[in-house]
Amino acid sequence: MSSLVIRSIFSFLFLVILQVLILNNIQLGGFINPYIYVLFLLMLPLQTPRWASLFLGFALGLVIDVFSQTYGLHTAATLFMVYLRPFVLRFMAPRDDYEFGARPSIRDMGLVWFLSYAGVLVVIHHLALFFLEVFRFDEFLTTLLRAALSSVFSLGLIILTQFLTYSERKTT
User: What is the C-alpha to C-alpha distance for residues 165 and 13, in angstroms, rounded to an integer?
Assistant: First the structure.
């Protein structure tokens, strides 16, 4: 259990540093802003209590907000994503439910399942983040395009990270 906690702390710190020092400085054409820090929340174990995942979402969003000077935007978006995570997991649950101890990863759940799971939650996060950032609907289509392009780019980085981190794939 302690190795899981240490690995989670390392993952938290690594993703925050990667986001703040490198990815926050990438803006391709003003439309693509990659946010890979949400991978930490996506990878929380399936049996994580709701209060713990909400606390971790708040903490992660707050740290990103402090370093990005975005005044609560990331905190609100990550809390919204984490709040909807159990509903997404329940909707995507296999008929015989999830195995105890399984983690939402490509290795444990397969590429198609993880792509669907992460795709839905990343789009939710990005839509919340970009619409809160603009905070008006007169730029609705532009904001929707920014959220869609950033979601695709972020999801690509998340999948790449999954393949680099977990070399084995589930064989079924």
Answer: 16
- Please tell me the pTM assigned to this model: 0.92
- 172 is a domain residue: no
Name the H helices within the chain.
2-21, 39-42, 50-68, 73-91, 106-109, 111-134, 140-165
Overall domain count for the chain: 1
Q: How far is it, in rounded angstroms, from Cα 86 to Cα 54?
A: 11
The residues that bridge with 28 in the sheet, in sequence order, are 32
Distance CA 101, CA 123 (A): 26
Give the tokens for residue 74. Answer: 């990331």
Which residue has tokens 């938290």? 12
Write out pLDDT tens, residues 59-68. Answer: 999 999 999 9
CATH of the domain at 136: 1.10.1760
Q: Please indicate, yes or no, if residue 122 is contained in any of the structural domains.
A: yes
